[in-house]
Design goal:
The complex is a heterodimer of chains A (439) and B (375). By secondary structure, chain A is α+β, with helices and mostly antiparallel strands. Chain A has helices at residues 2-8, 15-37, 40-46, 65-84, 88-104, 112-126, 135-138, 151-171, 174-178, 183-188, 203-225, 227-247, 253-260, 267-273, 292-307, 319-322, 364-370, 374-387, and strands at 11-13, 147-149, 337-347, 352-355, 395-405, 411-412. Chain A folds into 2 domains: 2-313, no CATH class; 336-422. Chain A is globular and about 80 Å long. In chain B, helix 2 packs antiparallel against helix 3 (82-102) and helix 6 (126-135) crosses helix 9 (175-208). Chain B is mainly α and 375 residues long. Chain B is globular and about 65 Å long. Chain B starts with a helix and ends in a 14-residue tail after the last helix. Chain B has a single domain (44-361), classed as A middle domain of Talin 1, CATH 1.20.1420.20. The chains are: A alpha+beta (439), B mainly alpha (375). At the A-B interface, helix 3, helix 9, helix 10, helix 11 and helix 12 of A face helix 1, strand 1 and helix 15 of B.
Chain lengths: 439, 375
C-alpha cells in the first residue's frame, strides 16, 4: 500500500499536465463558440417546449430563456480562462457546472464525448494544472512549481484507457465484425470524396475499417504506454481520429483525443514546448503530496466508471437494441438506428381515442431520438397525457413502435397496447421492451 | 536501456495479440441475416428512369392539363356564363386530380419556386382568401399563405355561392373576384413553367448524383416520396376522419371539399405514390424503380420480399378506399369504420416505406438536417 502511494507521488514534470489544460480549455472554448454559431442553442435549448430527462435528474429544469445565452457566454469565457490559467479553479468549476447543466437539461442531446469532457474536467479540477505557464502564476496568485506528483498525470491516462478499452470491447459484436455494420452504411455516403471515395462502395473496405477500428480501440493504449512504439502509436492516433473527423460528424471528439493523448509523451517532449517560456515559473517549490482522501475519491470515481459501462449485463437482451444500460458506456458509432413511434391517447371514460402528432410537441431531432429510446418513450407518453389533461381526464397512452437497426427491416419495439402511464421510467428492467436482440 | 525497450515492446505486442484472440473468440452464435445496402449498386438507371420516364413526362402531362384549365379560366373570367363556368369547373377537377401525380416531387426546381405551396396549400383559409380578394391583395410571395392555388378554385367555383347560377352572378357583379382569380391562375402558371424549365437543367444534376448521402438524389427522392405519403395519410384522411381529434370528425378539412372531389383526390394520390414506388412511367411502362432495388437487395420482410409487401399494402389501401362511397366529407361520419380501416392500412404502409425501405437501402430519413453532432 505504502509502495503504491509512494509510486503515485513520484515526482514528474508538470508540463504534460499544462499541455492537457491548455488543449482542453482551448478545445472547449472553440467548440462552444461553434455550438452557438451553428444555431444549436436555439434549436436544442430554446426551440423545444419539452425536454427529456436522465433518470434521477428530472429536477434539472431549463432556465428562463433570457438566461440561456448569457450563461452559455459565461461558460465560453470560463473555458478560455481554463486555457490561459486565470482564476483556474473557479473558472474550471464554473465551466464544469455550466457544461454539466447544459448536458443534464435535455437528455436528447446525450453524447459520449460530452460525458468525457465532464470526466476530464473533474480530474483536472483536482490537479494543480495552473501552477506553471499560467496567468495565475504571472499575477502571483499561486506559487509556481515545475514538478508534481505523477498521480495527476496517471489519472488522466487511466481515464483515456477506460474510454478506449470500453469503446473497443463494445465493437466486439457480430454486427461490427461480421457485417461491417454500421460502417458500411456510413462509408457508402462518402463515395464522392476524392482519392478514397472510389473504395468506399466496397464492402471489403468497410470490413477493413471495422476491424482496424476495433483493433485500434482495444490496443492503442498499450502502444501509447510503451516507449518504443509511442511515436508510431501517436501518429496512428492522429491519422485515425482525423479520418473519423472527415467521415462522421462527431464534433470535438477526434480533436479531444488527439489533444489529450499528448499526455503519454514524456517530460522531455513537453518541456521542449515551454523551453522559452520559463518566465512563468521562476521559482521552484517542493512538490505537494497528494492527500489520501483525494486518492480514495478518485479510486471510487474510477470504480463507478468501471461499473457503469458493464451495468447492461444486469438486463436481459442486447443493449444495442434495448438501450438498457447503453449510455455512459463508451458505445460509440455502433448503430444506425431509426424508429417510428405512433402514440395513441385513450379516454378511458368516454371510449374515445386519438393519435398524437409528435411534431406538435417535439422537434424533429427530439422525435428521432425519442423513437429509439424506451425511457424517452415513457417520458413522452406522460407528457402527452399531462398536456391533454383538460380534454382527457382519465387517460391511457399506448404506442405503436418499430425500430430498425443497422440495415435490417423493422421490428416492433414496445409491447403493443401497453398503457405507458402505468410503467416506471427507472433503472429496473423494462419487460415491455419486446425487441431484445438482433438476429 | 535497449533491452528494457525491447521488453516493453514485446509486452505491448503480447497484450495486442491477446485482444486479437478475443476478436476471434467473440463471434456470436446468432444466425446472422445479412443486412442489405446499396454497396456496389449502380443507381444511374434508377435515377434516369425517374427523371426521363416518370418525373418529366408527368410534368409535361400536368402542364397540358393546367394550360387547359388556364384557358378555360380565361374564357370564364372574360365572359362569365354557366357554360364557361362548367368548362372551368371540369378543367379544375382534371387539374386537381392531375396535380396528385406531380405533388411528390417537392424538391429541386419545384421546391425553389414553392410549387407545392402555390398549387395546394390546403386547407384553404377561406376567410383570408375572400378578404384578400375584396382588398385586391394579390401578393402570393409568401409560401405560407393559405389563400391561393387549387383550393381557392375549389372555394370560388363551388363554394362561394349557393349554386352555379349564383356563382356566375358573383363574378359578373364583383370585379374583385375576377381580378383575384386571374392572379391566382397566373401565379400557378408562372411557378409551373419555372419548374418545368428548371427541370431541363436540374435533370442532369439529378441523374448524376448517384450517392446515398443526405442531399443526393436517391435520398431526396425517397424523402420526398415519404413526405408526400405522410401528407396523404395525415392531412387527406387522418385529420378529416377524427383519428387525430378524439374521434370528432372534421368533414370540411378534406381536400376539394366544395367540389366533392375528396375521394377521387385521395385515390389519385395513392395511385401516384404507388406508381412512383414502381417507377412506372406515364406511358405505362414499368421501369427501374424502388421496388426493383428492393428485389435485387433481396430485402426480406417476414419471408416475403419487401417490394411485394409494399405493393400488397397499396392494394389493401385501394381496396379499403373502394369501400367508401361518395365524398370523404360525408363518409367520415356515415362510414366511420371504412374510413378508419383505410387510415389504419395507410399507417401500416408508413412502417414499410419509411422504416423498412430506408433501412435496407441504408438511406437515412432526414426531412431536416441533424441539428447536432453524433457519436
Amino acid at each position: 500500500m505504502k509502495a503504491v502511494v509512494r509510486f503515485l507521488n513520484r515526482s514528474k514534470s508538470i508540463t504534460p499536465l499544462i499541455t492537457f489544460r491548455i488543449t482542453y480549455g482551448l478545445l472547449l472554448f472553440f467548440s462552444s463558440i461553434r455550438f452557438w454559431y451553428q444555431g444549436w442553442i436555439d434549436s436544442l435549448f430554446i426551440e423545444p417546449s419539452f425536454h427529456f430527462k436522465y433518470f434521477g435528474f428530472h429536477w434539472v429544469k431549463m432556465c428562463p430563456e433570457v438566461l440561456i445565452k448569457p450563461l452559455f457566454a459565461l461558460m465560453i469565457l470560463a473555458a478560455l480562462c481554463v486555457a490561459i490559467g486565470l482564476f483556474y479553479r473557479y473558472a474550471l468549476g464554473l465551466f464544469l457546472v455550466l457544461f454539466t447543466y447544459f448536458e443534464l437539461v435535455d437528455a436528447t442531446n446525450y453524447l459520449n464525448h460530452h460525458y468525457l469532457v465532464i470526466l476530464f474536467g473533474v480530474l483536472l479540477l483536482c490537479a494543480p494544472a495552473h501552477r506553471y505557464f499560467s496567468l495565475d502564476v504571472r499575477r502571483g496568485a499561486v506559487i509556481p512549481c515545475t514538478e508534481i506528483s505523477q498521480f495527476y498525470i496517471l489519472i488522466l491516462i487511466v481515464q483515456i484507457a477506460l474510454v478506449y478499452t470500453f469503446a473497443g470491447l463494445a465493437k466486439l459484436n457480430s454486427d461490427w465484425l461480421l457485417q461491417a455494420m454500421p460502417l458500411r452504411i456510413w462509408l457508402l455516403e462518402y463515395q464522392y470524396l476524392p482519392l478514397v471515395g472510389g473504395l468506399l462502395k466496397y464492402t471489403q473496405t468497410a470490413f477493413a475499417f471495422s476491424w482496424f477500428a476495433a483493433f485500434y480501440d482495444c490496443t492503442i493504449i498499450y502502444f501509447l504506454l510503451c516507449g518504443p512504439t509511442r511515436r508510431w502509436a501517436y501518429f496512428t492516433v492522429v491519422v485515425f481520429h482525423i479520418l473519423t473527423a472527415v467521415f462522421f460528424n462527431i464534433g470535438i471528439f477526434p480533436w479531444l483525443m488527439i489533444g489529450s493523448n499528448l499526455i503519454f509523451f514524456g517530460d522531455a517532449f513537453h518541456k521542449r514546448l515551454y523551453a522559452q517560456k520559463s518566465i512563468f515559473a521562476l521559482t521552484k517549490e517542493s512538490i505537494p503530496r497528494v492527500k489520501p482522501y483525494l486518492m480514495i475519491t478518485i479510486l471510487v470515481f474510477f470504480m463507478v466508471q468501471l461499473l457503469l459501462p458493464l451495468r447492461h449485463l444486469a438486463y436481459s437482451g442486447n443493449t444495442m437494441v434495448t438501450e438498457l444500460g447503453y449510455r455512459f458506456g463508451w458505445r460509440v458509432m455502433l448503430l444506425e438506428k431509426a424508429g417510428i413511434a405512433i402514440f395513441t391517447l385513450r379516454d378511458k371514460d368516454a371510449d374515445r381515442y386519438m393519435e398524437i402528432d409528435n411534431r406538435q410537441y417535439l422537434t424533429e431531432f427530439q422525435e428521432k431520438q425519442m423513437a429509439i429510446q424506451p425511457d424517452f418513450i415513457v417520458q413522452f407518453a406522460q407528457y402527452i397525457a399531462a398536456q391533454n389533461s383538460d380534454i382527457v381526464k382519465s387517460s391511457a397512452v399506448s404506442v405503436a413502435s418499430f425500430i430498425t437497426i443497422n440495415g435490417r427491416v423493422s421490428q416492433r419495439f414496445i409491447q403493443q397496447d401497453l398503457d405507458l402511464l402505468q410503467v416506471q421510467d427507472d433503472w429496473s428492467d423494462k419487460p415491455w421492451i419486446i425487441y431484445r436482440s438482433v438476429k | 536501456m535497449r533491452d528494457m525497450n525491447l521488453k516493453n515492446m514485446k509486452r505491448a505486442v503480447l497484450i495486442a495479440s491477446f485482444f486479437c484472440l478475443i476478436f476471434v473468440g467473440c463471434k456470436d452464435d446468432d444466425t446472422v441475416s445479412a443486412p442489405s445496402c446499396l454497396n456496389e449498386y449502380d443507381l444511374s438507371p434508377l435515377l434516369s428512369n425517374y427523371a426521363d420516364k416518370v418525373i418529366l413526362p408527368r410534368y409535361v402531362e400536368f402542364s397540358a392539363e393546367y394550360d387547359a384549365l388556364y384557358s378555360a379560366g380565361q374564357s370564364f373570367l372574360s365572359s362569365p356564363s354557366s357554360t364557361s363556368l362548367a368548362s372551368f369547373q371540369a378543367n379544375y377537377k382534371l387539374t386537381y386530380i392531375g396535380w396528385q401525380s406531380v405533388s411528390p416531387f417537392d424538391f429541386g426546381p419545384a421546391e425553389e419556386v414553392f410549387l407545392l405551396n402555390t398549387f395546394n396549400n390546403y386547407p384553404l383559409n377561406e376567410g383570408k382568401a375572400y378578404a384578400d380578394a375584396l382588398q385586391g391583395n394579390v401578393d402570393f410571395s409568401s409560401p405560407d399563405d393559405y389563400n391561393k392555388g387549387l383550393p381557392l378554385l375549389d372555394y370560388f367555383l363551388f363554394g362561394l355561392a349557393a349554386d352555379d347560377e349564383a356563382t356566375v352572378d358573383s363574378f359578373l357583379t364583383n370585379d374583385k373576384l375576377v381580378i383575384y382569380t386571374q392572379a391566382v391562375l397566373d401565379d400557378m402558371k408562372t411557378k409551373l413553367s419555372q419548374t418545368v424549365i428548371g427541370w431541363q437543367v436540374y435533370k442532369s444534376t439529378f441523374i448524376s448524383s448517384t450517392g446515398t448521402k443526405d442531399g443526393e438524389s436517391v435520398s431526396i427522392l425517397i424523402n420526398a416520396f415519404n413526405k408526400n405519403y405522410e401528407f396523404i395519410k395525415r392531412n387527406k384522411v387522418g385529420v378529416p376522419s377524427g383519428v387525430l381529434s378524439l374521434g370528432f370528425t372534421n368533414p370540411k378539412e378534406v381536400e376539394g371539399f366544395h367540389s366533392e372531389l375528396s375521394l377521387e383526390l385521395v385515390s389519385a394520390a395513392v395511385k401516384s405514390s404507388r406508381n412512383l414506388f414502381e417507377g412506372e412511367g406515364t406511358d405505362g411502362m414499368n421501369g427501374e424503380g424502388l421496388d426493383d432495388v428492393l428485389r435485387s437487395l433481396n430485402a426480406d420482410k417476414n419471408g416475403e420480399n419487401l417490394a411485394d409487401v409494399i405493393l400488397q399494402q397499396y392494394s389493401e389501401i385501394e381496396t379499403n378506399l373502394a369501400k367508401i362511397n361518395g365524398s370523404l366529407s360525408t363518409a367520415v361520419d356515415q362510414q366511420k369504420d371504412e374510413v378508419i380501416a383505410t387510415y389504419n392500412s395507410m399507417t401500416q404502409q408508413i412502417i414499410y416505406i419509411k422504416s423498412d425501405l430506408t433501412s435496407v437501402m441504408c438511406i437515412p430519413i432526414t426531412y431536416v438536417d441533424n441539428p447536432s453532432d453524433s457519436d
